[in-house]
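#random but structural
TW: two for the price of one
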Amino acid sequence: MYADKNNLLHLDGWKQFACLARRRKKLLCMANQAKLQSFRTRPKFKFGVQVPCNHAEAMELDAANGNNNWCKAEETELAQIDEYATFEDIGKHGQVPKGFKKIRVHMVYDMKHDG
């Protein structure tokens, strides 16, 4: 878009984008996807603490920080699910009873303001 607006598409470094500039809608879509990709993959911080996006990253952060805070948080959440008998664990390959739906467990990581 910048090259098209500033009439740069005939220059050597910009020639590769000439065909994309003709398809403006596709170019906008590609630019938005690139922004989203960088947004999804960059580290997230909240209240000065890096927040993991998955279990593996949580364990890496624990190892890097020399503690097990994320591991303890996961264990606490799973213990509360068991304590309240929210779900019944039938195993990874277990048969789901009729009238029920299989729900996979996943963690959503976040940081509270009080740490």
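TW: number two ↓
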Amino acid sequence: MPELFQLQRLFAGALASRAAADAALPAFAGDPAKTARRLAIYRGNVHANAGKALRAAYPVVAALVGEEFFQGLARAYSEAIVSRSGDLNEYGAEFTRFLADFPHTQDLPYLPDVARLEWAVHLAHYAADREPLNPARLAGFAQEHQPALRFRLHPACVLLTSRWPIARIWEVHQADHTGAFDVDMDCGMERALVFRPGFRVRVRSLGPAEHVFLSALARRQTLADALQAALAVEAAFGLQETLIRLIGESVIVEVELQ
């Protein structure tokens, strides 16, 4: 009789693939044929739930490859990647890497970056809440202290870069999108921001200067250093309007003097 840990590993493997189930049959009591059928039912439920979890986290990827192909992707992923959490919302964290290595998606080189964006969107849904920052709080700091201010971004915020227009791809695949469906795949580097004003996650493209500015703030650099970095990219960078927009969108949620 196998040790409990070994038996647990055999059972977990049997839920992942039929080949592992066949190898595990001698460890189970009873008729092997009945055991195989019962394991197949469990395995089918595991793969179905994993597929639903991936579909919920990666709807744009599913739209890009088609539902039938995505079901095959989800099956292959669930066989290759074992969930290490009891929360299905955490399943899919390795999907970007999986897509980059999966032989049948190599003709869609933008797909891993789209998945990377979608995972950031997925996590943003469950990020902690923060109270919006009152813009008047900035006025409470003396002018000579303002260059030393440091900001915190909302926990939902993520900055991404890609050689593909991932923000535009995400935008045109939203249910409420009513504009043109065109995507310029040769537009150059994309700088995308994932953020959550209120209860809905949003994605938008950033200009180079704003991306540098926000990246500096995210690294807890001072306002003066972040502004200097932005001005080095774009001499006409507008600090006031950028701060107003970022505070209004709940991208910036805290300010302090250190």
